[in-house]
Design brief:
Elements lengths: L3 E3 L6 E4 L18 E6 L1 H4 L3 E5 L7 E3 L20 E8 L7 E2 L1 H6 L9 E5 L10 H5 L3 E2 L1 H9 L4 E4 L24 H9 L3 H4 L5 H8 L4 E3 L11 E7 L9 E3 L2 E5 L12
Parallel strand pairs: 6-8, 7-9, 8-10, 10-11
Antiparallel strand pairs: 1-2, 2-14, 3-4, 5-11, 5-13, 6-12, 12-14
Length: 268
């Protein structure tokens, strides 16, 4: 499959930003796997239909403010203009256990503009798998990074990590409901010499900061996002219109127009 698909009519180049989703995809420690089975089969009925049992926070997925903020907007309540618009892919390479700070965002090019969709690619999507490394050792956003994105009035924030926050700021570590990865705090301390409770004292603080500002988030960005490192593009996401929905799998894509001539159809 080619990394870039070119529309023959408009000349738009379309880039996939989602991981493949299906039975047995990587799932958060402590959560059930995606389970799919064919309830109707071609050999028996001449048609195919699947039944699915899933946690919504699997694969490339969108989080509504309701996910971490009580009485906030659900997926169905998010204005549709949040799902489409111009923005940037910030290439901020990070190693295990590192933190993405406001200073990192400020230094990244091209500069984030007010109202942008911001995609942060630290290279972690290459590790996407059912692995201790992928979930437990990933980088994450600091509180000041989230506050910086809020100050930029971002339309949507997407990351290629399994979660917005550093794993030691989530229930994977010694926070509420955790640790769901019991080895994680000691492994972090052994590797870094840092105290996880001191370095990551607030639970899901970066994610809560974004969602409390009404900014939906996409976690586990993948696909061919590397093509757009350090570039501006137009993005589109397609979440479910899910009443009371805190999250759902989402197809996420980018569009660029090398000719600069494409315009949206008038609809007439």
């Amino acid at each position: 499959m080619t990394a870039v698909t070119t529309d023959p009519y408009s000349g738009l180049q379309l880039i996939e930003l989602s991981h493949e989703w299906g039975h047995g995809v990587p799932s958060y420690p402590g959560q059930d796997d995606v389970k799919m089975f064919r309830s109707v089969k071609f050999a028996q009925h001449g048609v195919l239909a699947h039944r699915i049992n899933t946690v919504m926070h699997t694969g490339t997925h969108m989080n509504a403010p309701l996910h971490l903020v009580q009485r906030a907007a659900d997926l169905a309540s998010i204005p549709v203009d949040r799902f489409f618009g111009n923005g940037v892919v910030l290439h901020i390479p990070k190693k295990k256990y590192e933190v993405i700070t406001a200073k990192d965002l400020e230094a990244a090019k091209p500069a984030v503009q007010s109202g942008d969709i911001v995609v942060i690619n630290c290279g972690w999507h290459h590790k996407y798998s059912d692995a201790i490394e992928y979930y437990g050792e990933s980088p994450g956003l600091s509180k000041d990074a989230a506050e910086w994105l809020v100050a930029k009035d971002c339309k949507l924030v997407a990351v290629d990590m399994p979660q917005v926050d550093h794993p030691l700021a989530t229930s994977l570590g010694p926070h509420r409901g955790g640790p769901t990865m019991k080895r994680l705090a000691k492994a972090y301390q052994d590797a870094t010499g840092l105290d996880p409770l001191k370095e990551h004292a607030e639970w899901n603080i970066a994610h809560k900061t974004l969602l409390a500002a009404g900014i939906p988030t996409i976690e586990q960005v993948g696909g061919d996002v590397d093509i757009l490192n350090g570039k501006r593009a137009t993005f589109a996401a397609t979440p479910w219109k899910f009443e009371h929905g805190d999250a759902c799998p989402v197809r996420f894509m980018a569009m660029v127009d090398p000719s600069g001539k494409c315009r949206i159809d008038s609809g007439k």
